[in-house]
Amino acid sequence: MSSTNEVEDAVAQLWQEYAGAPFPAGLAGAERAGIDLVLLDADIAGCVSSRQNNGGFLDAGRRRILDARIADLERVLPLLGGADGAPYWQRLYRLARLVADAGE
User: Fold this and answer.
1) Alpha carbons 64 and 78: distance in angstroms, whole number
2) Whole-model pTM over 0.90
């Protein structure tokens, strides 16, 4: 993706898909690599939501949170099994990376 519009369109599409998808069943309170999956999901969603509601701007504090949570998600993704809703987490990762990369 090269243009700002393409990135924004991709973020909007993934955000819409994310918003319409239920959190994977059975993962409330679950941890992988010592990372609480509900909090991981909520922190990333909060950063993306803030950006989307703020005209594409992500403040420095939320940027630090997003970067840290992307690193956590990178540790978690290889540990997710079939029952963990891997497509949900892969979509969240793509969304988080797009938002982070767009801010650079």
Assistant:
1) 23
2) yes
